[in-house]
Amino acid sequence: MTLDPSQMSETAAANRPALPPILDGEIDQPTQNSSGRDKAEIYGSFMIDQSEFAIPVSAVKEVVNEPREISAVPLSPPYMLGLFNLRGMIIPIVDLRRLLEYPEMKNPQTRKVAIIEHGEHCIGLMFDKTGEVLNEHHAARVEFQPNNRGIKDIVIEGVLKFEDGERLVQTLDPYEILSLEKLPRARSSQQTNVTKAARGKRRNCISFQTGHTSCAIDLRYVKEVREMPQVDRTLFAHGDVLGTSNLRGVILPVIDFRGFMGDDAKLDLEKISPKDRRMLVIETSYGPIGLMVYSIDSILPYFEDEVLPFAKLALPRGDFVNGCLIDDDNKIVMMLDQNKLMNEPEFLATAKSCQEVYPAKTADKKDAKKVSGSARRTFIQFTFERKFALDTAHVSEVIDRPSELLEPPFSLDFVEGIINLRDELITLVNPRLLYGLSPATGEGQKVVIFRHEDQKFGILVDSVDEIIMTTENSVAELKGMDQRDTARNVAEDVIGCLRHNSTGGGISSVLILDVKALVNRCVKAAEHT
Questions:
Q1: CA 490 to centroid of chain Cα atoms
Q2: I need a labelling partner for 83 at 20 to 30 A (CA). Which of 37, 117, 446, 494 fits?
């Protein structure tokens, strides 16, 4: 029998357009079959090529169209397509074509995904198209005994024979699919509902690329983020350890983080420019280590309950991943477990050996002790024309420049537009135009979102360069300057100067912008327009 789509309620049809009929609406399941034994199972059938398969309707939560955005999971099994975001829930997708060893589609078309829920776990099964709703009552059932010769022999549990054997429908065991090795399984929505009052304090994390994967780590556990320095490969270079680097007189080992996370791609350090990579410095109990990553993406605010958990990840180093965050582009970011990173035996052993060979000088230890007693401050360094910094106490987050901006109800040259960020409207200021500097060229611009009083603003910058962890005694106060030319207009909105040890070993000065002065300048410019 075929379920008439008209049986769907108007509300269900509106909320889930183009859903196949097998789950749109309530299905009355019979209590028993004709022989009077246990009740017959109801199945939803689907097609892969010309073969018909079926899954018990009781295991299927819903059926959705193939998602447009699927985030790949590196080093996962071939049948694991990746992860997608379904109304705030991370769902892994298994391609049944690949799992059941069917060839790739010659003419790709939009397919369907059945969301399977069992206990606290969910998974998506992708197939070609939907079929019918089948009642086991009308079929002869043949069950298979697993022979463990392959995955498909395990997940196919039997055959339903209809029309005296003229129609054969293979039945899948969805729970066997959920039990496949190295398969991530998302927590069900019932497990992710957390009382708002119990959310705790909002934190910030820094997201970065390790190759084809976006990862993040809580900013509290990052000692420093900087351009990749030169690496000395004469000692300690083995496995994922690239060598050592000199960080202001402290020698620390540098780890290829992509390799550490399980990617065996060949890395030719001789052909890599330091400016093409970034280094995250984290502190272990035996000293600092540097993690080489591809790029720094943004600073993301998050609550603990927004880290969507997994029971298991298809990653060789999956135990280092706490869960996932969803960024503003609806992309999935792997949230790393900072405690496990800081206590990883390989990191500890390398850091200890490095400190034994290159012990910190006594003077350096005294300076470090003096610094540790000072008030700690964190700045985000960015560039427009030259390098500037903002205290992260004022920074809400960092995002990519949106491709689409709302037109403001006014005409100001220095206002790029209005950002709609999670239903919050934020004015985007172009500081180059505000201060009369030359327009920026090139792509990859970032937006630093900062808060002034009760309002948020965005400042468009050429790039975000580093996260600088320092102390109060490294910040020098600057006196106000007059406004006789453009350069001094910029300087007037500077509240201080940060003396920072640059990647090359020298000391550079970074001007700290005063958010209050910046906003006041925008207001005055608007009043005189």
A1: 35
A2: 446
